[in-house]
Amino acid sequence: MREPFTEAEIARQWISLSGRRAEGPDPNFLDNAQMKLDTVVLFPPVLEGFKEVVKMFAGFLCGRQGFSRYLQALGLEEAQRLLQASPRGPGKWG
Fold first, then answer.
1. Closest Cα to residue 36, out of 63, 8, 61?
2. With a threshold of 0.70, does the pTM exceed it?
3. Which of 7, 61, 89, 94 could be joined to 65 by an S-S link, Cβ 3.0–4.6 Å?
4. What digits encode the pLDDT tens for the residues 30-71?
């Protein structure tokens, strides 16, 4: 999703999904509309930064080497210190 939903898009999608009119008294429509309005839209450059953080976190979860380098690049030396002191042991985070 590249931009927030518009009222017209919400109504069109609801009609397409349910076959019913997009009306306020319908609790299912209201739930669907609220879900769409609550959707977070990340605009560049925030989106690019978010992708980079997810990529780094995925590498961390997979046990890839070099995670400490990412923390240093982000200025998160305190997080690196805590990771090094973890039960996993110093130097085990890459």
1. 8
2. no
3. 94
4. 999 999 999 888 888 888 888 888 887 787 777 766 666 766
